[in-house]
Amino acid sequence: MQKIKRRIYLDHAATTYLDDKVVKAMAPYWTKEFGNPSSLYSDGANAKKAIESARARIAKVLNAKSSEIIFTAGGTESVNLAIFGVVRNHLAHNKNKPHIICSAIEHHAVLESFAALKGEGVEVTIVPVGQDGLVKAFDIAKAIRRNTVLVSVMYANNEIGTIQPIAEISKTIKKINPKILFHSDACQAAGALPLDVNKLGVDLLTINGSKIYGPKQIGLLYIRQGLQLKPIIYGGGQENSLRSGTENVPAIIGFAEALEIAEKNIQKENKRLTVLRDYFIKQAFKTIPNLVLNGDAIKRLANNINFSVLDAEGEALMLYLDAKGIEISTGSACTSTSMDASHVITAIGRSETDAKSAIRISLGRQTTKQDLDFTLKTMIPIIKQLRTVSQL
Ligand SMILES: *Cc1c(COP(=O)(O)O)cnc(C)c1O
Question: Which atom of ligand 1 is nearest to the CA of 106?
Answer without folding.
Answer: 13
